[in-house]
């Protein structure tokens, strides 16, 4: 851990960032959140720059507010969100920005139970009917994950499909971004995939690439 100007410990390695993230989620689950880094001093310390310890690439769902479920505050997380956490050039560029310009040591792909985008994709696969407008593009990007889940288990549930989609998204980050792949290969960064359980607030690890063990 390194110390920022305001005396707040900052995780500097993938393992430290992972431990900090999971401790925050545990506080949230146990209803003992400390709401760190949300005061005036923290706000003032960030006027000249930011040093987040985690990039969170998550679903846009309103129930998936990253700073809340991991008990974080201002300047802690660099957050990128799309419906169904689908990768496009803008999302990938945003994640790469976190690596190239902010030296973020941990990237999280964050899915969740009962994901509406995955549910819509499951319905399209089952019926052959595609949604209208640009939602179609989201469904097309999630379809390979749904099909992979069905191949593994023909009775696969939406939540099983979510876990598969999280895994595939995490793998695709390394495949499609030489910047992220190089950071993971050097040990500078780790990529993890988590599924968030709506009923108890717990974030469950379903995939990891890179050093997250202390």
UniProtKB/TrEMBL annotation:
EC number(s) recorded for this UniProt protein: 4.2.1.1
Record PROSITE patterns: PROK_CO2_ANHYDRASE_1 (PS00704)
Keywords: Lyase, Zinc
Sections of the chain in a coiled coil: none
Reactions catalysed: hydrogencarbonate + H(+) = CO2 + H2O
Enzyme class: lyase
Pfam families xref list: Pro_CA
Kinase listed as a keyword: no
Protein known as: carbonic anhydrase
Source organism (scientific name): Arthrobacter stackebrandtii
